[in-house]
Each structure stands twice: as C-alpha cells, then as structure tokens.
Amino acid sequence: MAIFTHKQKDELELGFGSKNYKNPVRFLNKDGSVNVRRTGLGWINNTDIYHSLISASLLKLILLIISSYILINIFFAFVYYSIGASHFGGLEAETGSEFQKFMGLFFFSAQTITTLGYGHIYPIGNAASIAAAVESLLGLLSFALATGVLYGRFSRPKAHVLYSENILISPYKDGKGLMFRITNKKQYELIESEASVTMTITNPESNKREFLNLKLEIRHVNFMALSWTIVHHITEESPLYGLTQQQLAERDVEFIILIKAINDTYSQGVNSRHSYKAHELVENAKFKPLSPESTKRGTLKISVTDIHLYESLN
Fold it and tell me: Pick from 50, 72, 103, 211: CA 20 to 30 A from residue 95's CA?
C-alpha cells in the first residue's frame, strides 16, 4: 500500500476520526446520509422534527399528515362527546346510536379544525365553545406548519443523482481501474459537476482508520447530460494497488463519494453523497455501453437504469 505523509492525512480528514471498530461500520448510508447516531443529551435534544419531515419520503409525509389529521379529529370528537351531546345544536338530528352521534362530532371536529363550518352542528355553552375555539387555533397553526414543510421540500434545490448499484474493477489502459457510473435522474440540468472519491480502510499495522483520496482520471464535467463513468486508475501509486477483494473486505473498506454541481433550475450549488462497501465491489467486470437513441425530433433518449448493467469477464 502506498505510504501517505501526516500532512496528506490531515488534508483528508473527513470528520469520522481514525478509530478502528470491532464490528464492520458504514459511514454513509446508501441514500447518502451520515450513519452516525448521537446520544447522551436525551431524546428531546436528539429529535429534529423539521429535519425529519423535510428528509422523509413523500409517501411517509403524506401518511403522517393523513394519520395526524384523523387522530386529532378523533381526540376532539372524544372531547366533545365527553362534554355532552346536549351542548351541540343540530346533533339531535343524529337519531341513531351513540356511535353515529360520535361520528357526527368527528365530522364537526373536521369542519372546525379547517374553519370550514357548515353550520349543521354548532356548539352551545361555554365548554363546547372553548373546545371548538382551541381546536380552530390548533388547526390554523397545524396547517401553517404543514404548508411550510411542503414549501420547504419543494423549494429546496437537490441533486437527484443515480449511482450504479455496483462499483467495478475493470481493465483500463495498461492495467486496471476502479469505476462506477452516475447519471441525473431528473429533467433539469446539473452543470459544472465535480466528483471526489475517498477510500477509508483499516491499516493492519497501526490498526487505525485511514482516509485516502483516490485520484480520478476526470473529476469535472460541464454537463451531466447522459452518464458519467468515474474512473480511478489503479497504478503503483494507488492505495488499491495489490489489494484483493478479500483483503478489502477484511480491512472494512468503504468508498465515499461526493458529487458537487449546480442545479440550473435554482442556480444554486447542490451535492450528493454515496458510498460502496467491499461486498458491492465486482472484480474483473466492465459496464455495458449505454445506447442513447435519437427521436424524430432530434432529441437524444437514454434509459438511466442501464447504468447498472455490467458483464463479467471471467
């Protein structure tokens, strides 16, 4: 393995420290999030509601909003029911069972929290009116927060970068190269894209973690219009030189990728993170060529999922 000076190691410090762990670790999750859980200050300090709502998937957010809406209305329906059906004008029209009266109060709660107010059922007396006023205020605040979260999600510039499922060691020039492919999943453009790849590996002599920068053949492209195959030439100066996949797995290697670009829709810088572990490395294989097609209008069309395809050379 190549020898790196202390100065070079300082320059490659990523903030994960140099400690070696008994169990294999992954510093970055597949979605690019940092795989670190901070504890010691209690669950309140470790809870970031806004970040959780912003970073949650759209399906989870929709389910959370719907379930919260239903639970709040059920809660206030119980409050109204405990006050008494006689304190709500129009509820006497519900001539059915107690369950039907409860459902009438549930829909009254839904009308109150949205300040819709059909007027079919209305509060009578201080207790019912206070409860309805509290729910109306809660509804205004809740919908304002939900609107802010939705706006924050849609207005935040992102880099929707798709990474190949595997990272390969393929024949390259007069030797071998470590390579993976990326592409833009969306229709907007990523310009001035820049890539950096850092390999973290356990040094068997010092039993410490090292973070080593991998020199890339091309680290900058002006347009990520089709796809980009990022290549590290494995020469004698490479920290990968002479290491087998088994040795990489034993030393708990992880390739940490950072992509920086400019989202031309927002004209703002964005970034994307990803990582590969040794079990996602495929030796002696090469990616299958992509086949862009031209339409009758002269537009190039490419299937982005083809960046995952490779063939074994064994």
Answer: 72
Q: For 149-188, how does the pLDDT look when each residue is reduced to its tens digit (9 = 90+)?
A: 888 888 788 888 999 999 999 999 889 999 999 999 888 8
pLDDT tens per residue, range 41-77: 666 666 777 778 887 788 888 899 899 999 999 999 9
pLDDT score of 10 more than 50? no
Full-model pTM: 0.73
SS3 percent helix, strand, coil of the chain, rounded to 5, is 35, 30, 35
Mark whether 237 and 278 lie in a shared domain: yes
> Could you tell me if 167 and 276 are in contact, meaning their C-beta atoms sit under 8 angstroms apart?
yes
Alpha carbon distance 259, 264 (integer Å): 15
Kind and range of the H or E run holding 155 = helix 126-155
Q: Which of 155, 186, 220 is the last residue of a domain?
A: 155
CA 213 to chain centre: 25
Q: What is the largest CA-CA distance in the chain?
A: 88
* Cβ(302)–Cβ(188) below 8 Å: no
